[in-house]
Design a protein that fits this description.
Layout (H helix, E strand, L loop, with lengths): L2 H7 L4 H6 L8 H12 L9 H13 L7 E2 L2 E2 L1 H10 L23 H24 L20 H10 L3 H12 L9
Antiparallel strand pairs: 1-2
Helix pairs in contact: 3-6, 4-7, 5-8
């Protein structure tokens, strides 16, 4: 029996179908796998439990709507986000820190779900680095006392999901957080 036939033969439980039903039937298998990955005991995707919980809540709130995929393929939001990540050096960041999953090579629901969550994790890492830096300033010198408050993962996800133009939203976030340079010399 195929995965699709098995899914249609076994109706999902009411609580699962209410919280994770894809808007596009082509995405339902991916949505199911995203749910499975988020509820797994072992997490190899997210940097912290707080991020994983924020992502899980985000997808539940969106009732299973995927962030980077539509109809089993990358959407415009994914293309814009990936294009922006490739320009991370323009913000003084190392592009190698932002692993971009290969959606084209992902041929199964499992692989697409993992790519969906990996791009989400990458975007959270990028937002954290953009706002708080890549490492604590105290590692450079104990004399540096600059607050490094990372953004809330839930806020980052909502802003990305709600943005009409993801690249523009990310660019504006980078500009707001970029330190100003003093023109006076000591």
């Amino acid at each position: 029996m195929t995965d699709q036939a098995a899914r249609s033969a076994t109706p999902p439980s009411p609580e699962v179908s209410e919280s994770y039903t894809a808007l596009d039937p082509a995405d339902q298998g991916i949505v199911d796998k995203v749910r499975d990955l988020l509820t797994a005991k072992v997490d190899k995707i997210f940097a912290s439990k707080k991020e994983r919980l924020a992502v899980e809540t985000f997808y539940q709130t969106r009732k299973g709507t995927l962030l980077w995929l539509e109809g089993g393929a990358m959407n415009a939001r994914a293309h814009a986000a990936i294009g922006h990540l490739k320009l991370a050096a323009d913000e003084g960041l190392d592009t190698n820190d932002y692993k971009i999953p290969n959606f084209e090579a992902a041929q199964s629901d499992d692989a697409l779900a993992e790519a969906e969550l990996k791009l989400t994790a990458t975007m959270l890492t990028y937002a954290r680095h953009l706002q708080a830096g890549r490492f604590p300033f105290a590692r450079v010198s104990r004399d540096i006392d600059v607050p490094q408050q990372p953004p809330e993962p839930a806020d980052v996800l909502v802003k990305i999901a709600d943005a009409a133009n993801v690249a523009k939203r990310l660019k504006n976030s980078a500009r707001r957080r970029r330190p100003t340079r003093s023109s006076s010399k000591n």
